Amino acid sequence: MNLSDLAAKGATPAGALLSLAIGGTPGWEERFLTGFDEACRAFGQRQLGGDTVALPAGAPRVLGLTALGRAGANVPSRAGGAPGDRLWVIGTIGDAVAGLAQLRDDEGASGPLVEAYRRPQPLLAAGRILAPHASAMMDVSDGLLLDARRLAEASGCGLRLDLSGVPLSPAFVSARGEDRAARLFAATGGDDYALLVALDPGISPLTLLQPSSVTIAPVGELTKNGVFALVDDLGSVPLPGRLGYEHNLS
Fold this sequence. Notes:
The protein folds into two domains: 2-70, CATH 3.30.1330.10; 86-236, Phosphoribosyl-aminoimidazole Synthetase, Chain A, domain 2. Helix content is 30%, strand content 25%. It has helices at 2-7, 28-42, 95-105, 112-118, 124-130, 144-154, 170-176, 180-187, 205-208, and strands at 12-22, 47-54, 63-70, 86-90, 136-140, 158-162, 194-199, 216-223, 228-232, 235-236. The two termini are 23 Å apart. Residues 83-226 form the PurM-like C-terminal domain.
């Protein structure tokens, strides 16, 4: 998840700081650190240090991670988009929330959707290629509808998003279908860790990236009017009451 934030800035991983609170189930920390080391090795991320503390019996477990990266000359924020920019999704949407639904029904569930939820894959290579050309870019972590609105608002723009263009994986379609309800479920779910990028209409990621290695889909455009318009092949789509996952800290 931290590396996905780096991907949205076009950054290359440089290191990580881990804060680990020890306590609770015996052996948990050893298993966690084994998995953490595997993830670091897989993405070329070194653990630079951090902090370790002991917890009293019964205390909730606390983990904190900071990932550091090296970015290029253009570090895209979510605030650089302009009216007329086209919006593209790199990756697929909905797999993780569909996997979570399977786990809620059956704790022993497995398969590609569960794997997408448990082991998100940051699109680091795609982010590095897109960053020099992006007007704005962010990762999709809280739901495509919510994060697209955040990008549009930060850029001072409106938004027209085509629900029928939301990229769904074959595994998602097999499990949930691809009608309007399924697409709204996918686009409001979160934990996708795809990239949402705003590009000048004269630039296409289809020419920058290798389509065989990652899914690339146009999903809409930024507009002047400040309105969030959601459409699909059947016409206008009413905005759902919940656009994505809202972090409630109260």
